[in-house]
Amino acid sequence: MILKHLKISRPGLWFPTLWIYLVPFTFNTVFWESANFWIGLVFVTFPLNYLVYGLNDYNDVAADKVNDRKGNFLFGAKASTAILKRVPLWIALINLPFAIYFVFEAGLQMFIVLFFMVAVNYIYNFKPFRIKERPPFEILIQIGYVVTALFSLLLNKLPMLPWLTMAYLSLFAFQAHIAGEIMDIEPDRKAGKKTTATRIGRKKAKLLMLVFLIVEVLVLGIGFQDYVLAGFLAVFAAWLVLDVFVFFKDTSYTVAQMKLFGWAMNLSALLSMLWVLYSGKLLAPVF
After folding, report:
1. Each residue of 25-72: pLDDT tens digit?
2. How far is CA 228 from the centre of its chain?
3. Based on the number of CB atoms within 10 Å of its own CB, is 108 exposed (0-12), middle (13-18) or buried (19 or more)?
4. Are 142 and 174 in contact (CB under 8 A)?
5. CA-CA distance, 269 to 263, in Å (whole number)?
6. Among 168, 249, 157, 169, which Cα is nearest to 203's?
7. Which residues pair with 72 in a beta bridge?
8. DSSP letters along 172-204, please?
9. CA distance 261 to 248
10. Handedness of CA 193, 56, 262, 219 (dihedral sign)
């Protein structure tokens, strides 16, 4: 049962919240000596992602039933209705102790940030809003992920991030979400779920993702002079061009291919986290 709930939190997709939580730090800050850092790090892994993906699965039963990439720790569980009915209660029980501690540590501002996290996920998943099926707003609302950076700043008493860093993190969140939509086009269509990818099709969705990647490369290269991270994303963009025009074009990926992409995303996220912590370039835009 514990493993089933862990699977609902999608450990293979923890990297966006982890990545964004770590952005305000560098190795020079010796952050690992702070207890609050580790408590916050634990929170942005299982508890926060259990909230995000648990509410998603609670409201996405039909699409998940026909989604072949689900049912693993990489992409999430295929949980029974009986388990999913209790997920909101478990979310509250798991997250409430953290919330109380964080508000005690950082006050009213932290309460507002945590409330916003819950509100964004409610608006995304539940009627009458259910933004997840109102393209293209289901992409734009991914800006909610950036609140993880604000949470990190408040908990660890760090200075506000530059606006360009926040803009880059938003682009990162948009791009990551589109990647998931592209892999879910078939099951989403079978379940009658509306997303940007189901509306415009696989090829155009990949091209939209490519646009975000190119903008990210420009922001990193020009705005931060971070040629390492920009170069990495440029390679990813080049691969996506080959994907669209040479290899896959408008055909769907197999489950094995999606799992390979998933592991590659986690590896690239780990390496880029280490680079961001080492270089600190995302904290110092050149204009």
Report:
1. 999 989 999 999 999 999 999 999 999 999 999 988 888 888 988 989
2. 22
3. exposed
4. yes
5. 10
6. 249
7. 76
8. HHHHHHHHHHHHTHHHHHHTT---HHHHH-HHH
9. 13
10. positive
- d(CA 66, CA 213) in angstroms, rounded, equals 30
Partners of residue 76 on adjacent β-strands? 72
Would you state the structure tokens that stand for residue 218, as one six-digit string?
Answer: 């420009």
3-state secondary structure 12-42: HHCHHHHHHHHCCCCHHHCHHHCHHHHHHHH
Minimal CA–CA distance to 62: which of 236, 190, 209? 190
Q: Which residues on adjacent β-strands are paired with residue 122?
A: none
| Matching residue, tokens 């903008």 | 215
Q: Which residues of the chain have pLDDT under 70?
A: 1
Rounded Cα distance between 44 and 74, Å, is 17
Tokens of 106: 């950082």
Beta strands in 150-278 (DSSP E): none
Sign of CA dihedral 175, 17, 55, 63: positive
Burial of 28 (0-12, 13-18, 19+ CB in 10 A): exposed
Return the residue matching tokens 């799992």.
259
